[in-house]
Amino acid sequence: MSADPTSLPPGDVGAGPTAYPDGGRADDGAPLQVTSPIFLGMPSFQRAARDALANTQQRRNLAHATATIRAKRERVVGEVDRWEDLRVAGAEAKDEALHHLPDYLEQLEANLTARGATVHWARDADEANAIVLGLIRDKGADEVVKVKSMLTQEIELNERLEEAGIHAWETDLAELIVQLGHDRPSHILVPAIHRNRAEIREIFLREMGSVGRPAPKDLTDEPAKLAEAARLHLREKFLRAKVAISGANFAVADTGTLVVVESEGNGRMCLTLPETLISLVGVEKVLPTFADLGPMLQLLPRSSTGERMNPYTSMWTGVTPGDGPQEVHVVLVDNGRSRVLADEVGRQALRCIRCSACLNVCPVYERAGGHAYGSVYPGPIGAVLNPLLRGTGSEVDKSLPYASSLCGACFEACPVRIDIPQLLVHMRTQVVDEASGRSPEALGMKAAAWTFADHRRLETAQRASSLSGRLLGNRTVRSVPGLGAWTQARDVPTPPKETFRQWWRRTHEDES
């Protein structure tokens, strides 16, 4: 899915739903070299956000794009009389699946297998990538076309395929922009939201010719012209590809049906033309029944693109003889989701349907952009989902729960009622608990507990304090080594020149 560029003036966000179900190829077949850095080793959110704030062009792009999407969403949500009932229904369907996930996954596998699909299970990114690579090699293919998929970005599938000499062509317009620009996605729905149309025109003119049909020399930054250039660039790739890779927005357990919703038509081309289709599906995407799609297909388009319904909703159930791919593989991927499921508070993050509504209302995301979050999942949901999936062992994952003002707008916007502010506080507690015993504050509290446990230690500490007070005189303590930023914002109280006991003895000497 991608947001509509035709509703934005020239110079604003460059991603859109205009259909471009075709493409092209360079004469020399040159592969696309992905040079953008992967997310591992990213700095903390606070450091990355500080750099992003200096990019004024990006801030203008983000502010205009998110405001436009918010306004469209408000209009179409306002048309629904019982919107809150839909949110509750969506949340309940996801919770039912999560609370009985093993049962529904086994039901999904059985129904997929009965309809001719082959189901694979992957515990982590390495297993998922190995399965996909093996399937592509078995077909003798050296390229694949891809439907937009957050999961394939999460496991860095494109990078692994390129290392193996297999070219993965993104066919979603926004993803194509990111790929051609050797960039990273910065938004769940509109990965190229940080680019404006002028920048996209330059990317197309500079890069398309090296990996396929070049962009027209007279290309302008009009949305229709940009979409037409993408359509022509992709045409031969669609017609030539023997293998396609997709994700899934939903996987229905009781029928074995996979669902992809999109706005451009490129997904439909990938799902119907190639001989082999490989779908990577996070285990949390399962829904119990086909009826559960009803609320979801009302919630998702309104919350994401501000549309009443998606232009393209594709559903497939296994193999249909003589129609569409005749070899269908479904890879069910865990990659940390079981870890999240075990967290009684955090598991509600697995309800996420990747609509990006929380990003579009978040004042922090609007100013910092998506790259600062150090993951394919940016914004409020990324600030909790990333550390839940990956743990808080890295600098960036420790910092993400603090990438929020806790204003609560994300919960109000979430179509499946994920209480993101609650999760942010929950993850902050986890970060602090994991650092317990190592931080200066924790060491200070342990020292205080040891001192207060014995009156003789306390008296010794008080005498030492009064001595330091007499030595300091009337001078103010501006900073204390080890306490860092705490003493940069406040003065430390000057220790008293005598303790209470010393004062008592001095003033009540006759009484004693």
UniProtKB/TrEMBL annotation:
Sorted alphabetically, the Gene Ontology BP terms of this entry are: lactate metabolic process
All copies of domain 4Fe-4S ferredoxin-type, residue ranges: 349-418
Tell me if Iron-sulfur is a UniProt keyword of this record: yes
- Reading the lineage from the top rank, the first entry is Bacteria
Task: Please provide, alphabetically and separated by semicolons, the GO molecular function terms listed in this UniProt record.
Answer: 4 iron, 4 sulfur cluster binding; metal ion binding
Domain spans labelled Lactate utilization protein B C-terminal: 435-507
Q: Which residues form the LUD domain?
A: 105-333
Q: Which residues fall in a coiled-coil region?
A: none
Instruction: Kindly give the Gene3D superfamilies that the UniProt entry links to this protein.
Output: Alpha-helical ferredoxin, NagB/RpiA/CoA transferase-like
- Any single Pfam family the record assigns to this protein: LutB_C
Which intervals of the chain are annotated as region Disordered? Answer: 1-32
PROSITE patterns per UniProt? 4FE4S_FER_1
Going by the UniProt record, its keywords in alphabetical order are: 4Fe-4S, Electron transport, Iron, Iron-sulfur, Metal-binding, Repeat, Transport
What this protein is called in its record is: Iron-sulfur cluster-binding protein
